[in-house]
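note to self: dont lose this again. the chain is below, predicted strucutre after it. 246 aa total, dont forget to put it in the shared folder this time
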Amino acid sequence: MARVLAVRDLSVGYDDDPVLEEIAFDVQRGQVFAVLGGSGSGKSTLLRTLIGLQQPLHGRVHFTGIGTPAQAMAPPQFGVVFQSAALFGSSTLLQNVLLPLQKWTDLPPAAATAVAMGRLRLVGLERFAHHLPSEVSGGMKKRAGIARALALDPPMLFLDEPSAGLDPVTSAELDELILTLARRLGVTIVLVTHELPTILHVADQCILLDRGVRGIIARGAPRDLAERSTDARVQAFFHRQTSRLA
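---
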């Protein structure tokens, strides 16, 4: 399996105050890779650094065949779906998905619309293309965000807490969509989440961050960590015991 993302000796934080120090990991092509950790462990800061919204304090993030996050952003070589989906409220779902195509391609309007409708079809929202975000459910907004992130057919997708705020059934449906993207379409997915059902169902590999050590305390297949790790902090996370991750 080919490596698509390499993180080496990476320290991230704010104003020279590190949240994570000297961490390293790889993401392989076609994987669903989960970034886990308790509150304040650095998950969101790490994500922002991986996608180029924040500069690292030290170390490097390298996309295979592309380079740095800054080089991967113009034009975008990955898609990003933020926790709120970040849709433009005054635009329809179709218009939201069209935005990357209009910015980064020279496709004629009819062709761009056809591509955008195809992405909405992929996430089960074709019938709602002309609805505003306020007219659809939270789960549908997340799906629309995924459709927009896939507009340029990127090989990699970053998802920030995709199941946050969703009911169990809608969350399970979103998990299945994530698996479809990874297994059938070969999209590499990095997701930040603390939802155990999602972690155990969709993630191939994960890292577990810990605020106390400012680093990674476990890595591997989530089920293996949940069942076999002897680290009390890992057990606390996976079995929702009194947390030592705080």
